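FAQ
Q: What does a multi-component entry look like?
A: The components come first, one per line:
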Amino acid sequence: MFNKGWVIGGIIVFVAAAAFPFYWYQIGQGKPFPKLELPAKEKRCVESVEFMRANHMRLLDAWRIAVVRDDLLIYTSTKGDKFEMNLHKTCIGCHTSTERFCNRCHDYNDVVPPCWDCHVAPSEIGKGEQS
Amino acid sequence: MTLTRRKFLKAASVAALVVSARPSAGRAFELKGRMSPGPKALQAGQWGMGVDMNKCRGNCRDDCLAACHEIHNVPYIPKPEHEVKWLFLEPYENAFPERSHRFLSKRVREKNFFLLCNHCEDPPCVRVCPTQATFKRQKDGIVMIDYHRCIGCRFCMAACPYGSRSFNFRDPRPFIKKINPEYPTRHRGVVEKCNFCQELLEVGRIPACVEACKEGVLTFGDLEDPTSVVRELLSEKPHIRRKPDLGTGPSVFYIT
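Then the predicted structure of the entire assembly, as tokens:
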């Protein structure tokens, strides 16, 4: 064997460098999770909180396909609650501030849904012609 | 141990099978809730419209056009090449360029015609759309645009013989007088047009232009139902359609 020390040392250095992101992530301090503003009066979301947390984007996707393409309107949840499949009237009807609810969590997770380019966010209501 | 090449290959292929056959568990998403149409939804086989040009004044832009453009957040952009419109008025020569109705009454010919998407039976825009963003809804015959899918290629605009579609060359929001939060705007880079007010039909209301017209020019109903108001009107009065020779089968009829 030649240069046993160099080879083993090199391997150790290489592994340490390659694994850098993993232990850096462990050492690094995560941002604290922001506080979400929950609806004051309502107790229940469209589906269970766990389901919403994990799947609200898929739910919204299914809703828009149902409304635009299949001419449906009403969603009956697993608990039997009825909702109009509408981003503005339903979701924003309860979660009245996108900034203090949707966006806080999305900023934390670095997600930027394009929905508010067209759908009217509550902060845009009442705005009009500026030019 | 002796491992022949043959044995190695056998073992490797079995291992590959096992690895690739692992079920992709937890990936599939299943929505457990149920979806249904609105309880008051108006339904038809093919929605259609009659425009009575004897009654239409052809110049009161404030009623039908304003009502539609207000509720749908259609921007008013003064620059003609950037204009966005769902409903519009054009003189007879532009609406019926073939001018096959030579002796149409002068009174009608001199008016501006009320134009909109024809919601064709065989829409050419649908055939050319590469993403199926624009499609003919089986249930009620409305030619829809799924704005979520539109990539702004404008093939549909080239295909439409009626000029019913507009492209958003710029961000429309600054050009909307008062944004109606109930209906989304569009953004730069998508095509838009009349949707026969499907969002109103869904909740049991007739289209905004029909409701707004004080002269009773517009009649809206099911073309497949012989007892509907439009069919009854059409069975009594002479009417024409735009560019019928193209075979698109417009659902908008002009009573002359």
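Q: Is there any commentary attached?
A: Sometimes. For this entry: The longest helix of chain A spans residues 49-70.
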